[in-house]
Amino acid sequence: MLYSANVFLKSNKKVFRLKKHINNDKIFLKKSRNFITWLINYLLNVLKPGINSSHGNFSNQDKEFICECVEEYLKTIGKIKWKQLQKRMQKDRCVPCSQIDLKNVWNLKHLREGGAEAPDEEYLEEGLKLYLAEGIKIMNYNDSLKRINRFHKIKYDFLKYINSSLKNLSLKIQKLKKFGFSSNHDIFSNEDKEFISEWIVEKLSKKPPIEWKLLQNEMKIRCVSCSQNDLKNFWYSTQRQLTRESRAESQDNLIIEYLVQKDEI
Fold it and tell me: CA-to-CA distance for 131 and 157, rounded, in angstroms?
């Protein structure tokens, strides 16, 4: 009986310690929820058992194929189907890869064409190793709060390249608009303005309603980050300016006619 009582007490102590440990880990997980979601997504997409993933080691032809497929999806459907693209890569190109690898190729293309400096492959590999090492420690619950601050710096420095789509300018603008901020509608270059005007005029001549979502996808293909409100603001402001100019011209014509009639009298 004494032995069984000691075992029971020891087991209760373990349970109490485990509960206390779990409560501490809940606080920890709240502070690192962004990292945990990224890690789960990475483990599901990259470290799948049974897939010999290329981990982003694509040839130039593979990268061109990925970008062409993404542009095709944006033109026809309006959204990118990464799962279908993953199957196409395995079927057509015989390249097994993860969805994150495909996203990285597309996002890095946007970074290069947008003027941002693309990271070196060595930097990405080192960052990924550090990131996974920290992630394994977190999943084993052997990390402390001091170490959280250290790997958070690695996370933000690393994810600003890998998850650049999450830090897209259009997403930031949409978040700001919820708090009452308005974006500047004159964010386009002259070439972009000509493209938008020609696209809308062509659309109105064929089918009257303007599909702003499709136009936004076309601008994404041109590597221009903008919201639908930005496009509307530009188009309607130009229309208002044209109406003002036409009204001014009509008023000038009326004044000229009046003066001519007065001279004749």
Answer: 11
DSSP state of 179: T
Burial of 29 (0-12, 13-18, 19+ CB in 10 A): middle
Residues 238 and 108: their CA atoms lie apart, in Å, by 34
Candidates 121, 120, 147; CA nearest to 136 is 147
Rounded to whole angstroms, how far apart are CA atoms 159 and 164? 7
pLDDT tens string 167-199: 455 555 555 554 444 444 467 778 888 888 888
Distance CA(151)–CA(134), nearest Å, equals 7
Conformational region of residue 50, where left means phi above 0, alpha means psi within -120 to 50, and beta covers everything else: left
Per residue in 28-82, pLDDT (tens digit) is 555 555 555 555 555 545 444 333 444 457 788 888 888 888 888 888 877 788 8
- Spatial CA neighbour of 95 closest among 121, 56, 50, 41: 56
What's the CA gap between 215 and 217, in Å, rounded? 5
Q: What is the DSSP letter of 79?
A: S
What's the pTM value of the predicted model, to 2 decimals? 0.29
Q: How far is CA 81 from CA 11, 65, 73, 75, 174, in A?
A: 50, 14, 7, 12, 23
